[in-house]
Write a structure and sequence with these properties.
The chain is mainly α. The protein is built from three helices and two strands, in the order αββαα. The protein has helices at residues 7-18, 55-59, 65-75; strands at 22-24, 38-40. A two-stranded antiparallel ribbon has the order 1-2. It is elongated and about 50 Å long.
Length: 79
């Protein structure tokens, strides 16, 4: 049997995947397809509630969109 997901369990699972890099700041968990506010501790994105990824995406290693843009930009820089 699967354990029913709660906000506390979701926070634990996010920590298991992302460590201290992503912090759940939302106060309510509904289901895996309803966004929950999170914040990227690395760049600060989402600190004001503007990042609400679906839990299923975050737990499947789809991380901060701002950090991803920087990584992609750095890969495409001409030396």
């Amino acid at each position: 049997m699967f354990e029913k997901m709660t906000l506390d369990l979701y926070k634990k699972r996010v920590y298991d995947v992302w460590g201290d890099q992503i912090r759940v700041i939302g106060k309510q968990y509904k289901n895996m397809n309803t966004g929950v506010s999170v914040c990227c501790e690395k760049c600060g994105y989402g600190a004001h509630g503007e990042w609400n990824p679906r839990p299923v995406n975050l737990l499947n290693h789809h991380g901060c969109p701002e950090c991803s843009k920087k990584i992609i930009a750095n890969k495409h820089k001409i030396p």
